[in-house]
Structure formats: structure tokens, C-alpha cells
Design goal:
Helix content is 43%, strand content 30%. The protein is an alpha+beta fold and 90 residues long. The longest helix has 20 residues.
Length: 90
């Protein structure tokens, strides 16, 4: 399912026009993104939680040449599914 499929599914369930549904979906994504930028956790009860995780800088090896490389510190987004979502998928 891609974003357009999601918009269509939500529009069908809510009887909203697709244009208005697209605005709502974009607003939800923007709100989640803004909270994660502020390093806040986003908890959607029954669905799951989004949180940021920071990795420290480290040194690795190029598997092809064996040369050492620097791996910069990075921040990523983690998602932990909620119990209801886990149960629905199983």
C-alpha cells in the first residue's frame, strides 16, 4: 500500500472527498514528523509508538578492501507496534 492507496482507503471509510482526505493524511504525517524532530515519542494507543534513536559515531571496515572507515553519528526513527496491531496481524 502506498500513500495514494492509503488516501483512497481512508476516503472510502470516511465518505470524505479524496482531496480533503489527502490534506488530513498529510497533516497527520506532518504532526508525527514535527514531534520526532523535537525528540518526542509519538504513541498511538493500539497501533504503536514512534521514537527517535541516536547511534554514536564508530569505526567500521570496508568488507571489500578491509580499510577502516568512519561511520558518522546518526539519528533514526524506530517503530514499535502496539498489542492490538500485533494481534491483528497474527
Amino acid at each position: 500500500m502506498n500513500k495514494n492507496d492509503l488516501i483512497s482507503a481512508v476516503a472510502d471509510q470516511t465518505d470524505l472527498p479524496k482531496a480533503k482526505t489527502a490534506e488530513v493524511v498529510d497533516a497527520v504525517f506532518a504532526a508525527i514528523e514535527a514531534a520526532l524532530k523535537r525528540k518526542e515519542e509519538v504513541r498511538l494507543v493500539g497501533f504503536g509508538s514512534f521514537a527517535t534513536a541516536t547511534r554514536k559515531a564508530s569505526t567500521g571496515r570496508n568488507p571489500r578492501t578491509g580499510a577502516e572507515i568512519k561511520i558518522e553519528a546518526s539519528t533514526s526513527v524506530r517503530f514499535k507496534p502496539g498489542k492490538a496491531l500485533k494481534d491483528a496481524v497474527n
